[in-house]
Amino acid sequence: MKNRYRLIQRGSRGGAFYCVDTLTGKRTSLGDVDRDAAEQIALARNQALRQSALNLQIARAYLAGSDSGVATRTWGMALECLIATKRGVTQERWRRAARERALGPLLPRIIMETRAEELLAVLRHGGVSTNAHLRKLHNFCLGMTWLPWPLVPKPLWPPIQHRERRAVTADEHRRILERERVPERRAFYELCWHLGGSQSDVARLDARDVDWKRGVVSFFRAKTGTPQIVRMGGGLAAVLRSLPAEGPLFPALAAKNERQRAALFQAICRRLKITGISLHSYRYAWAERAKAAGYPERFAQEALGHNSKAVHRAYARHAEVLLPPLEEYEARAKVVVAFPLPAAAAPLPEGARGTDAPTAGLPVAQEAPRSR
């Protein structure tokens, strides 16, 4: 192995010794030392580097006994394996993430030769999406034992700071409906308001998903595959009656992808000068309306398809809830309903005890003798 550090002496600097890194070209002064000490310092640096590389080669040889791909597996290969486990729109989202510019330098790197500084450099040059997807890719490699230990410990990962998101207000929803001239899109926004579903789930609704006998709308979430069964209210039923009785409820919107539907929504928001919302904001609006109305959290969580209470509460965190005064609950607790108890039976006279008495035939309890 070629030495990385070499020793030079500058006569113009009073014969001072310098250690030169041949990889970076950086020179480091060794201070006021003689030649023997300077040679020892350069030798120590080369031995430390050689030992580190030797340790890596030894570890790679041991790991290759159980995993033949440890010496050639790159982050790009791991990312392809991770994408293969996804499906539908989630897989498409991961494929877009794989094309991010910030991830480019990392993908050809061999996983076992990667240093923590390289991951942190990717995070510095990327955004929220890079942070989220790289964290999941790192954990995927740990779970597959392609990484023997975490490169970046969990507490040291930079926190994911999402852009502030808000819900569609009732006034904004009314203005959007008034401005939208296409009946299909107007009905689509109304169903988003009533169901709180994702734009893909609502756009792909079919007439067969509407059960008029039971009065419910049922569909499977594209993201998780879990069923959603929602009972119709008056407003939801009125919108559904205006839609086709057979086939897709939104034929034109179902043929478009997420970006195209989002672009149509943003176009009408720009005309109305409404900022800070997207089609996903209808889910925030449904969660906030449910919380403000006192809708049970477990029902709201099921309606939105949230498996985690923390996620659901994040959606509804901006809801304004009018809390009733404590006095009302205290007054309600003081109201006690009294039920009349049956009157105690009068004792029978001494001579009335006989065979016809209620206690006839029952054993008579005797007093236990007192212990001395």
Concise account of the structure shown:
This protein has 372 residues and is mainly alpha-helical. It contains 15 helices and 6 strands. The protein has helices spanning 35-64, 75-84, 88-98, 116-125, 128-143, 170-179, 183-195, 199-203, 234-241, 251-254, 258-271, 281-292, 297-304, 309-315, 326-334; strands spanning 5-10, 16-21, 27-29, 210-211, 216-220, 227-231.
Whole-number count of domains: 3
At CATH level 2, the architecture of the largest domain is Orthogonal Bundle
Ends distance: 101 Å
Q: How many H/I helical runs?
A: 15
What's the helix-strand series?
EEEHHHHHHHHEEEHHHHHHH
Q: Could you tell me the radius of gyration in angstroms?
A: 37 Å
Biggest β-sheet: count, sense, barrel? 3 strands, antiparallel
CATH superfamily of the largest domain: Intergrase catalytic core
Morphology call: elongated
Q: How does the helix and strand content classify structurally?
A: mainly alpha
Looking at the structure, the CATH topology of the largest domain is: hpI Integrase, Chain A
